[in-house]
Automatic annotation (TrEMBL):
<dbReference type="GO" id="GO:0019350">
    <property type="term" value="P:teichoic acid biosynthetic process"/>
</dbReference>
<comment type="similarity">
    <text>Belongs to the CDP-glycerol glycerophosphotransferase family.</text>
</comment>
<keyword id="KW-0808">Transferase</keyword>
<dbReference type="Pfam" id="PF04464">
    <property type="entry name" value="Glyphos_transf"/>
</dbReference>
<dbReference type="GO" id="GO:0047355">
    <property type="term" value="F:CDP-glycerol glycerophosphotransferase activity"/>
</dbReference>
<dbReference type="GO" id="GO:0005886">
    <property type="term" value="C:plasma membrane"/>
</dbReference>
<keyword id="KW-1003">Cell membrane</keyword>
<protein>
    <recommendedName>
        <fullName>CDP-glycerol glycerophosphotransferase family protein</fullName>
    </recommendedName>
</protein>
<dbReference type="InterPro" id="IPR007554">
    <property type="entry name" value="Glycerophosphate_synth"/>
</dbReference>
<keyword id="KW-0472">Membrane</keyword>
<keyword id="KW-0777">Teichoic acid biosynthesis</keyword>
<dbReference type="InterPro" id="IPR043149">
    <property type="entry name" value="TagF_N"/>
</dbReference>
<dbReference type="InterPro" id="IPR051612">
    <property type="entry name" value="Teichoic_Acid_Biosynth"/>
</dbReference>
<dbReference type="InterPro" id="IPR043148">
    <property type="entry name" value="TagF_C"/>
</dbReference>
């Protein structure tokens, strides 16, 4: 391999202890390939490059075909399988990657190509014919959107190489000999040009001239095949070809956070995109692939002598404004079976298709097939969909595995029926079946306001619900009926409805636990949705026909889903009515609990001004709202109304991108941690964000604030520089820390230790690893990193210790109780945990500034300090200045330091006191009062 240090680290981590993997140093790609060939003993080779993705079974599919003539091509969607050539299957040239071609080992010319993708070599080898695998086996990760916190690398330094590569590949497919393949290859190159076009904003004049000319050449070479390129990269290429750089940059900026949906119109049987840019209508036309039929089977059941299939469907990027005309056919080779269908409205179709710019109200298709016409076979389900002058035909390709369509088997008479997804579409498999019906546990489910009433077959010792880190025991009632609670009080604070999430029902018999299996008549019902007083509750199918209870926020039908939310956001932006000066909005994180700075400020405000109406944002009915406030459900119509009309808003995270502060609104950004890590412009620039992207980030952040809370005046300069912020700063200390130095701190400590079952005399150690940006899967989720083996540490420390494991607010909760370990990720207030602990194990979390106020010792587990500082996040100033405690690299180091907590505390008492004097001088228990007096000074007088 030819790797830089970062790629080498990734490769070594992926290889692990697998001795079949060899990582070799090489100065360039040809040398790396040649070195690999010399060491390989196989008769064929596959030369992968960064971005090549092989789906499960891909390599085996190629191996099965290796005895045939010529190379084997790992197929992509839409490419027919079998022996072929570029005359018969020219679309293969649309993705020229050497990493999808399996070649005989002896072909030395393969190793001379300096292009990592080997496009021209792949084109040359395909000219003589090839075999395509019989299943979609290859994906190109270069076409995927990078994760939100990934570093955006500037591709422009590689533009010249890219142009040479495209030209060389096209030269290998002469237009006079292979005209169709030549066009397909050019169209594929247009699509692959998108990353370069998206960086046009920072291109030099020479780079722009080259990019513009290359886009023009590729579009000309693609000819009518340019219509196969998705509309966005096609329009970007057209703007570049026409030398419209400003328009191109504006379009990139406009689409940066817009997702993959956009408004469209249907005129004379053609779908045109509205991208807000002036180009020829032909360039805005969407091809059939972009407006293809999407369909999935949701339900499979038998009723009154008929097999019933319910299918959700719609055309991508096309609003379903009228009931479509739908026909359906089952096919199995030469056999075909047509049957009647009906079409109905179902809001769940809109929610599944998730297109914010398009309505799909009429998309539920019900097919009824007489059982006496059903014969054994493996049947594909084909639909023809007609709407607005459009007609699209296609196979049903998806199964809703949470609905009855995913059931293991439906037994009807002597037939067994089930649905399976395959590369060639969903298969309805009908087989002779003489076995017994599978055993089941759940005979029926009835939904109450605060319980599920589940009838369990036979004798059961124990029934319980698990999910979201919770375990809820059912109560035996009578005749096999168990009451499964939908409320909980995990921490002994207050009984609340269960939080949003998925919960699975289990049953225990003779000390054997397993997921509870649904009876066929219960499976027939799923998915089934019911509204209780606290939840939108859905009964779903789980693995192996088990029962999953999905609880969601109590939003209305016109508030759920991407399309409904887009409508509400548009209505929000149009609000003109005056602000309500006595209405105050509070939000802490994403609304699971009332805590952090907003809680401390709200409690002080409610004490001083009971006449003010306070609305507290909640994620669902499980969130507990403090005294003096009323809940408002995030994403509800009422929530948008409150955000539009509140005179004052207090939040510790950024509000959504569609939010704009209305004239006269006062918005206090509290943040939620002491500033020490790289943030704002410094962080964004390190991620490779373009200038236009930086401006959008500032629009979303500092330009929405008109007041900012900081813990000390010395910190103000970082916010001024990193957020280009010139507004009001309240450098008044941190309100959430008032409780840590209050007269009630000891009582709260003892109360929390009691709730957490910490025995008198036990040492409680709080372990709180921080968020890792490089592991983020979206803006508010990431895999947790645990350099501390908590079970090993707990075992080594013994019964006199208990470890409190606290994940970041964006980490998913785990099991609550373990051996001397308590997962406190879902505990609502971290201050309680800080007070309860006798010591803390931290890394780079700003919690060290809060914990230091207790005067108790901290151990810093920082094995990846250099990597975190240079690659993952980085610091505003030297980490060593803000980490008053021993630094260790592993679990053994942590255990060694914690064996004598009292001695540890004595050794570090003076450094911690100096640390507090420097960083926490305003944490005096009066910060909340100061903030309320300052920020709410313009409230109207009480009536």
């Amino acid at each position: 391999m030819c790797l830089d240090d970062e790629a080498r680290g990734t490769a070594e981590a992926a290889a692990g202890d697998d001795t079949r993997v060899r990582i070799l140093d090489a100065p360039d790609v040809p040398t790396a390939r040649l070195s690999g060939r010399r060491r390989a003993r196989a008769q064929h080779h596959l030369l992968a490059a960064a971005g090549d993705v092989y789906v499960p079974g891909a390599v085996q599919a190629a191996i099965d075909l290796l005895d045939g003539p010529g190379p084997v091509v790992l197929g992509r969607e839409g490419e027919p399988a079998g022996r072929t050539d570029l005359h018969e299957t020219p679309q293969v040239a649309g993705c020229l990657r050497l990493g999808r071609v399996v070649l005989p080992k002896g072909e030395s010319a393969t190793f001379d190509d300096p292009d990592p993708d080997g496009a021209s070599t792949a084109a040359r080898r395909l000219r003589a014919g090839f075999t395509v695998t019989g299943r979609p086996a290859y994906l190109d990760a270069r076409e995927a959107t990078p994760p939100p916190h990934a570093v955006r690398r500037d591709p422009l330094p590689g533009l010249d190489a890219r142009i040479r590569r495209d030209r060389a590949a096209l030269d290998e497919l002469p237009v006079q000999d292979l005209p169709a393949a030549h066009c397909h290859a050019a169209a594929g190159a247009v699509r692959a040009l998108q990353p370069f076009l998206e960086h046009a904003e920072v291109a030099t004049s020479d780079q722009w001239a080259a990019l513009s000319a290359h886009a023009r050449d590729l579009l000309a070479a693609a000819a009518d095949r340019a219509a196969d390129v998705p509309v966005l990269p096609r329009v970007l290429a057209r703007l570049a070809a026409d030398d419209r750089r400003d328009d191109l940059v504006a379009l990139v900026d406009a689409r940066r956070f817009a997702g993959d949906d956009f408004p469209t119109s249907v005129v004379d049987g053609e779908v045109h995109a509205d991208l807000g840019v002036r180009v020829d209508a032909a360039d805005l036309r969407l091809g059939e692939q972009e407006t293809r039929l999407r369909a999935r089977v949701q339900r499979l059941a038998a009723h009154e002598g008929e097999l019933v299939l319910q299918v959700q469907g719609g055309l991508r990027h096309v609003a379903q404004t009228e009931a479509p005309r739908v026909s359906a056919v089952l096919s199995d080779g030469e056999r075909r079976l047509a049957f009647a269908v009906s079409v109905a409205d179902d809001p769940a179709v809109d929610q599944w298709l998730a297109e914010p710019e398009h309505d799909h109200p009429a998309g539920l298709v019900t097919a009824r097939i007489p059982l006496d016409q059903l014969v054994p076979g493996s049947w594909q389900i084909a639909l023809t969909w007609q709407t607005q002058g459009l007609e699209r035909s296609g196979l049903v390709e998806e199964v809703d595995h949470q609905g009855s369509a995913g059931r293991s088997r439906l037994v009807v008479g002597d037939l067994g029926v089930h649905l399976r997804e395959s590369p060639g579409g969903v298969r309805l498999r009908v087989e002779r079946y003489a076995g017994d019906a599978p055993e089941h546990d759940v005979e029926s489910v009835e939904i109450g306001e605060s319980n599920l009433h589940v009838t369990v077959r036979g004798e059961a010792d124990h029934v319980f619900l698990e999910g979201e880190g919770l375990h809820l025991d059912a109560v035996r009632q009578h005749h096999g009926v168990w009451a499964v609670p939908l409320v909980h009080d995990v921490w002994g604070l207050v009984e609340r409805p269960l939080p949003t999430g998925s919960y699975r029902l289990h049953v225990e018999r003779s000390r054997t636990r397993r997921p509870a299996v649904l009876a066929p008549r219960v499976l027939d019902r799923v998915p089934e949705e019911t509204r209780t007083a606290a939840h939108r509750l859905r009964l779903l199918r789980g693995h192996a026909d088990g029962l999953v209870v999905r609880l969601d926020p109590l939003l209305g039908a016109d508030e759920v889903g991407a399309r409904a939310q887009r409508r509400l956001q548009q209505a929000y932006r149009s609000v003109q009515e005056p602000l309500d000066e006595r209405l105050v909005y509070f939000q802490s994180f994403t609304g699971q609990w009332a805590n952090d700075h907003p809680l401390a400020i709200q409690q002080e405000l409610a004490r001083r001004r009971p006449d003010v109406r306070i609305r507290w944002a909640v994620s669902d009915s499980s969130a507990n709202v403090p005294d003096g406030a009323e809940p408002v459900l995030i994403r509800s119509r009422e929530w948008y109304d409150v955000l539009a009309r509140a005179g004052h808003l207090v939040t510790n995270i950024e509000l959504d991108r569609w939010f704009h502060r209305r004239p006269g609104q006062q918005l206090l950004q509290c943040f939620h941690g002491y500033p020490s890590k790289t943030m704002g412009l410094g962080l964004w620039r390190s991620r490779g964000l373009l200038p236009g992207h930086l401006e959008q980030q500032l629009d979303h952040t500092s330009r929405t604030w008109n007041a900012l809370l900081t813990p000390d005046p010395a910190m103000d300069r970082y916010y001024r520089s990193e957020y280009a912020y010139d507004g009001r700063i309240l450098a008044l200390g941190y309100p959430r820390n008032d409780v840590l130095v209050s007269p009630h701190a000891h009582d709260l400590r003892m109360d929390t230790r009691h709730r957490l079952r910490i025995a008198p005399g036990q040492r409680a150690v709080l372990y709180a690893p921080t968020w890792r940006d490089d592991l983020a899967t979206n803006f508010r989720a990431a895999e947790a990193v645990h350099h501390l083996d908590v079970e090993q540490a707990a075992a080594a420390l013994g019964d006199d210790y208990v470890l409190l494991l606290r994940g970041h607010r964006f980490h998913a909760p785990g099991d609550r109780w373990g051996s001397r370990v308590v997962d406190v990720t879902t505990y609502p207030d971290v201050n309680h945990l800080i007070l309860a602990a006798d010591a803390a194990v931290l890394d780079y979390s700003s919690m060290r500034f809060d914990f230091a106020l207790t005067g108790r010792p901290m151990v810093f587990l920082v094995p990846d300090l250099d990597d975190y500082d240079s690659r993952t996040r980085g610091f505003l100033w030297d980490f060593g200045e803000t980490a008053p405690g021993p630094w260790v690299r592993d679990t053994a180091g942590v255990v060694a330091e914690l064996r004598d907590v009292d001695g540890l505390a004595r050794r570090w008492a003076e450094p911690i006191a100096a640390f507090n004097a420097r960083y926490n001088r305003l944490q005096d228990g009066r910060a909340s009062a100061r903030v309320v007096e300052e920020f709410f000074s313009d409230l109207p007088d009480p009536v």
